[in-house]
Batch of 2 targets.
Target 1
Amino acid sequence: MDERVIQQLIDEAKKVRERAYAPYSNFKVGAALLSNSGKIYTGCNVENASYGAAICAERSAAVHAVAMGEHSFKAMAVVTASSKPGTPCGICRQFLSEFGLDLKLFLANLEGEVVKTTLAEYFPAPFSPDSLD
Ligand code: THU
């Protein structure tokens, strides 16, 4: 993928990370999802006083995109302020897998460290629509 597009995706994830609502963990996460139609949909983590009701940034971005009519995605950037870039949690891996394992992942921290991987690498055996047959 074009380096400028990757950087744009990371920048969008960084920007939306600032809007994260994380008063309980103080761990803010931003995600930016690039659709195959070329649009970027962002999301941040939103926590809740009932802790288990929180939603992660990755699912927030995917829900945003689906609400805008998108089902086909190329790449996602995720930005955290951790010393090593964060990795999507198991629920988010399963959630994203619904739309294809070929999703490219760019996991970045604020120091500019970027891990380039794919959902397939992180989540090779999802419960998929085929599993329902
Ligand atoms: N979080 C995400 O937004 N994405 C992940 O993949 C892992 C965790 C959020 C959930 C919670 O609001 C905070 O980070 C600490 O776990």
Target 2
Amino acid sequence: MATPRQKLGTKEPKASQTLSEAQIAVHWKEEQYYYPSKKFIAQANLKDPALVKKFSEKNFPACFDHYASALDWDKKWHKTLDTSNPPFWKWFVGGKLNACYNCVDRHLAKYKNKAAIIFVPEPEGETTTVITYQELYKRVNELAAVLGDFAGLKTGDRVTIHMPMIPELPITMLACARLGIVHSVVFGGFSGEACGLRAADSGSRVLIYADGYWRNGKWVDHKAAAEIAVKTAEKEGQRIDKVLVWQRYPGKYSSETPMVKERDHFINDVVKAYHGQTVQPVSQDAEAPLFLMYTSGTTGRPKGCQHRTGGYLAYVTGTAKYYQDIHPEDVYWCMADIGWITGHSYIVYGPLALAATSVLYEGVPQYPDVGRPWRIAERLDVNIFHTSPTAIRMLRKAGLDEPRKYNYHFKHMTTVGEPIEPEVWQWYYDVVGKGEAAIVDTWWQTETGGFLCTTKPALDPMKPGSAGPPALGIYPVIWDEEGREVKAGSNLAGNICIRNPWPGIMQTIWGDPQRFVSQYYKKYNKNAQSKDWRDWPYYAADGAMIAKDGYYRILGRVDDVINVAGHRLGTKEVESACLTIPEIAEAAVVPAVDEVKGRVPVVFISLKPGASAEETRAIQDKVTTAIETMIGKIARPKEIHMVPDMPKTRSGKIMRRVLAAIENHMDTGDITTLANPDVVEQIRVLVQGHEEGKLQEGPEDIKRFGQES
Ligand code: PRX
């Protein structure tokens, strides 16, 4: 039988791919298992093996009706999955529901006086705000009235929300969902320019902002970004009619940026006219888009992942219930930012659909000291905690024994976003979890809506460093570049794919369906005409291995994306920012290993002839400024190297793989076929100094970096 790769038959394997994944043996020590406590198991949502069986492949896709049944539908679906137009799947066809109703209204009967959101401001002297489900209902309704009546927004319109971690952010998202307005939340730390580009791409004519917020003890004048966002969007041909601004301190404007007459409005003032108003939730088709979330890919511009209402909400509700073990009685705290997919799925939609109490913290975990998260946990009696390996590494480095000083008890903890080193996992388990909490290491992506691999906390043992088995109803496979299956226990790495559709998968890329197909489905598609989902595996662009016990270990991105502190950064985006500087001829961005953040970007630039190398410092500063302006501080490079030339193939392609190897003191491999092999040694000296140090083995993702470009 022909392999998928041969069947595609359009491309010759690239030179850099001749070293197949199948030939890269990975050696890693098998870790021991850890078992959840009897106490945890006794109260767990998922402890019935019969339910697990229900999700076996022979019951696909009907197994996912179980998740959808956890929601309230205005009209029940008549077909679970429609595969007639692959890979544009339709879930819960014919069904109608409203996401806001499911996260708010339906809880009023039983839980109206229960805390829905607890907001913890960064300044420790400021009091915590509790928003009950009743109050959330009121506030969401009033804002929905503002959006519909005052801003003139209708079902299907897009709105860009550039806000920090304040309760008005989930309130705004839910008010949009109530009316079927597609929200596009841009991470608050992104620059105004990044927000403007996303607003233009989504065709938003309304921006929603906050005037400012606290971060690491400093007041950030966030409204300043709105001015840049509006200008950028307009440059891109998208007019912004209204900028609606929440005041962080209601009644007081805390930004130095003037409000623009007619265009800018304080929501806190406008909403007064809508006091007590209610707005009917719009009954939405299951396939109606709920939101866009922009993420970085292999091209210069971020892409808008479009998520559907019914399938997405069903998937995050089911996975939050079974993997995070959320019950309505729990106090759940996810330390991620709502501006990322983790926050959408597992701060807002999943927990609120389950009537949980979701804690929202404004600031950084280390402010004013690394005891802060544990003080919050103690005070609010948080029992489910969720964070990233980067945060765990940082908290461990700066406060090894800090959690022991506080009297809190987690029953469950999640980690997400990056591979976690077994020793970091061990600290999380022993010290943060006090040996009492079950841990799930959840592997997934912006595109996938919810978890793809994770242990079932009461049923599967934990294994440090492994995400674990696939989530219910997910059937992964690892293939090498030639389409051969990488078998369990083979100690080989390959590309992890998901063989089947699932309700949480994105619908398409906003405005670019072709890219959706080419990016995620083309690589291992067996037959472009096929209507059978089995021919359309999802390509995740992550390297992975599977151990004998069926546990997956995720090794990291195999494309031009760098995972910085658990956040995706497209190297092409950073390179485009560098190339806006007139003196720069070429730019290449590669990942470097960082003890806390996992990976950080390092920039290589070469100058145009005639540009003076004496101005190195000035040009480096310009590079940093350009990156911070166009993307945000999150993308700030660790180093900027000015090189005489880039290592290139004979066809002129920059060999980023070679630069990544030099930066990380790894073997550069065979460079004799390069057009300019001599430059490699010059760059090595520039980066590492004259003395050749010992070469490192280096992590898998850096070994593979640049293969796809
Ligand atoms: O490389 C994988 C890594 O994060 C990428 C997805 O990033 P993003 O879309 O920003 O979503 C992050 C939150 C879901 C993946 O392609 N990743 C995510 N979770 C894990 C992980 N790597 C290893 N282990 C994980 N648990």
